[in-house]
Design goal:
The complex is a heterodimer of chains A (314) and B (289).
Chain A (H helix, E strand, L loop, with lengths): L2 E9 L3 E6 L5 H11 L10 E7 L4 E9 L9 E9 L6 H8 L19 E2 L18 H12 L6 E3 L3 H14 L2 H4 L4 E7 L8 E9 L2 E3 L9 H11 L5 H9 L7 H15 L3 H11 L7 H8 L15
Parallel strand pairs in A: 7-9, 8-9
Antiparallel strand pairs in A: 1-2, 1-5, 1-6, 3-4, 3-8, 4-5, 9-10
Chain B lengths: L8 E5 L5 H13 L6 E3 L7 H12 L13 E8 L4 E7 L3 H10 L4 H9 L2 E6 L10 E2 L9 E2 L18 H4 L2 H15 L6 E7 L13 H8 L1 H8 L5 E9 L8 H6 L3 H4 L1 E3 L5 E2 L3 H8 L2
Parallel strand pairs in B: 1-5, 5-8, 8-9
Antiparallel strand pairs in B: 2-3, 3-4, 6-7, 9-10, 10-11
Helix pairs in contact in B: 1-2, 3-6, 6-8, 7-8
The chains are: A alpha+beta (314), B alpha/beta (289).
């Protein structure tokens, strides 16, 4: 049975694990302790964290809330859900997972409800209570897609509104093919220093550096591939691009930049521009051993379905 | 002519032992024209975080706890009246990062990196937040492992409710700090000795007639820690300090603030009880006695 193990972190003479549905290996416990702890000034939006736990082939999805009702300034509550990598492949289980995080409403009196695993099957996915109701910010989505998928992108993006950022990050994450999703670590934070290697993408209100705090953001590119990625990530239904990414992505290394390479190839396929597609393949899959399935399907004469990918009746 | 010193100091301590308060007060003193022991040597660097700490110390409010992922630091060039110029870097480490080392036996990577690079450590202990060794009473019908003795005057026995003893949750503070020291010693194999200053925070709360010196207090309350440090002189040069980085109790905030600015309130003592500047533990950590 697919199930999420849950862990509640909070303040008790320091930020610590208060309740959980199973024991944690020491290294995992420390990784979750760090992933769920963050500086949160008054009024801070809930922070989201997705953390790949490669050693145990698991994934942790966490939400952190400010605990202003507690006497210690800076205390937080955090709910972490840990699932097997394979559980991220099932769309309904994923929707259930992202709806699970909840802030304790009665403080430590609620601890008992965090001590049992939660079934991911048979449940009706709940709307995530920690996300704003407004629509996904597509401009921000483009900025995040560029940051995560383009070789020129920076792993840290500054954005003022972290609620919107959380929503955009989750849209981007959910659109990835399952193996990439299971390896993609992301987070929102109030302030960070750049260069934290364990996260593929961080959205923060402030980037701390030698020159003080900066809130400037990098403008995203306007390439056609980026537009397609944004349309796909914002779409609830499967798109032709997602079909393409999910067909060939699993043959690629678990690197977000490979999604960018596939997405950059996509406009040439939609335009049935073989010459451009070939050039793209030579650029992004230069060795004969790379992109074998892709090259065979597109130019091997066996199947030309993808060249008709934009046909309405496909 | 030699250049400025480039010390890498690490403030270590379990949660709520006064590390951030010390950092905030230190920054306030560095900026204060009244403080003669130290001054700012250049105006570069990022001060926003330490300025926030200093503002909170100045207002006499409890500081925000330092989150594990905070990655904050004091990075500034300062000139000490006794010593010279130092390009000082002090990360504001979270107490939780030390606790996972002591209780989970896992190095939190940023703490490990900071300690590996450290040229000196200031180890903070709060006099009112010590876990004392659990006493075992052997009595008729006692369960294996004994029963927990009733609380003695002024001593918190742990665990207080007689719950099963678990080393990772109930080990006394001294045992945890000795374990930490031994792990640090392993990191410094190739560059011993390192300066290790034990800083007893909230020194204003220490009573007694006569009031103990920092050395006497550590010898009485953390004798095993002191013995470990003193018997490992090849690993660490040791000094003891008592510091009051707020200058008094936050519960009596009005009284505290009435005593003036930070530089008027804060104080420190060396191991013998002699009054020193609050910046002296940092100066000692850089240049020694």
């Amino acid at each position: 049975m697919r199930a999420a193990h849950q862990f509640l972190f909070g303040y008790e003479d320091g930020h610590r694990l208060l309740a959980g549905s199973r024991d944690l290996a020491p290294a995992t416990a420390v990784a979750l302790l760090a992933a769920t702890d963050a500086a949160m000034p008054d009024g801070s939006a809930p922070l989201v964290t997705g953390l790949a736990l490669a050693k145990s082939s698991e994934y942790a999805f966490c939400v952190t809330w400010s605990a202003t009702e507690l006497p210690r300034p800076g205390a937080v509550w955090a709910h972490a859900l840990v699932v097997a990598e394979a559980d991220l492949a099932e769309p309904r289980a994923l929707e259930t997972l992202v709806g699970l995080p909840r802030r304790p409403s009665r403080g430590v009196a609620d601890l008992g409800s965090y001590r049992a695993p939660i079934a991911l099957e048979g449940a009706v996915p709940a709307a995530p209570s920690y996300l704003p109701a407004r629509a996904t910010d597509r401009e921000l989505l483009a900025e995040l897609a560029f940051a995560a998928y383009d070789p020129r992108g920076e792993a840290t993006v500054a954005h003022e509104e972290l609620g919107s950022a959380a929503k955009a990050l989750l849209s981007l994450w959910r659109a990835q093919w399952p193996a990439l999703r299971a390896a993609f670590s992301f987070r929102t934070r109030e302030v960070v220093r750049p260069g934290t290697p364990e996260f593929d993408l961080t959205v923060t209100r402030k980037i701390r550096g030698q020159g003080g705090e900066s809130a400037a953001s990098t403008p995203a590119g306007t390439e056609p591939w980026l537009k397609s990625v944004v349309e796909d990530a914002a779409s609830v239904a499967t798109t032709p691009l997602r079909d393409f990414l999910w067909a060939f992505g699993p043959h690629e290394p678990r690197d977000p930049r490979r999604l960018g390479a596939l997405a950059r190839l996509w406009p040439s396929i939609v335009a049935r521009n073989g010459r451009a597609a070939r050039a793209q393949l030579e650029r992004d899959w230069p060795s004969p051993q790379s992109g074998v399935a892709l090259k065979q399907i597109l130019f091997g004469g066996k199947n030309d379905d993808w060249w008709l990918a934009d046909q309405p009746d496909r | 002519m030699s250049g400025p010193a480039r010390p890498r100091l690490v403030l270590l301590g379990l949660p709520r032992t006064g590390k951030s308060t010390f950092l905030g007060a230190l920054w306030a003193l560095i900026q204060s024209p009244v403080e003669t022991a130290v001054s700012e040597a250049s105006f570069g660097g990022d001060r926003s975080y330490v300025q926030k700490l200093a503002d909170q110390v100045a207002r006499g409010v409890e500081l925000d706890r330092t989150a594990l992922d905070a990655e904050e630091e004091l990075a500034v060039a300062v000139e000490f009246a006794q010593g010279g110029i130092a390009e000082l870097v002090i990360p504001d480490t979270s107490g939780e990062s030390l606790r996972v080392l002591a209780e989970r036996r896992v190095w939190y990577p940023p703490l490990l990196a900071a300690c590996k690079d450290a040229t000196a450590i200031l180890l903070f202990v709060h006099p009112e937040r010590l876990r004392m060794p659990q006493r075992i009473v052997v009595g008729a019908g006692a369960a294996p492992g004994g029963e927990v003795e009733a609380q003695a005057d002024g001593v918190d026995l742990h665990p207080p409710d007689g719950a099963a003893f678990q080393a990772n949750e109930h080990a006394c503070t001294a045992a945890e700090l000795i374990d930490v020291f031994e792990n640090l010693a392993e990191l410094w194999n190739d560059r011993r000795p390192i300066r290790v200053g034990v800083v007893v925070s909230a020194w204003d709360r220490i009573g007694g007639d006569p009031r103990p010196t920092p050395y006497q207090w550590v010898a009485a309350r953390l004798p095993a820690v002191l013995a470990t440090l003193e018997s490992n002189r090849d690993v660490a040069d040791v000094a003891l300090f008592g510091v009051s980085a707020q200058g008094g109790a936050l519960e009596a905030r009005d009284e505290l603030l009435a005593r003036g600015e930070i530089c008027d309130r804060v104080f420190a003592e060396d191991s013998s009880g002699r009054r020193i500047s609050l910046v002296e533990p940092v100066r000692w950590a850089i240049w020694g006695p």
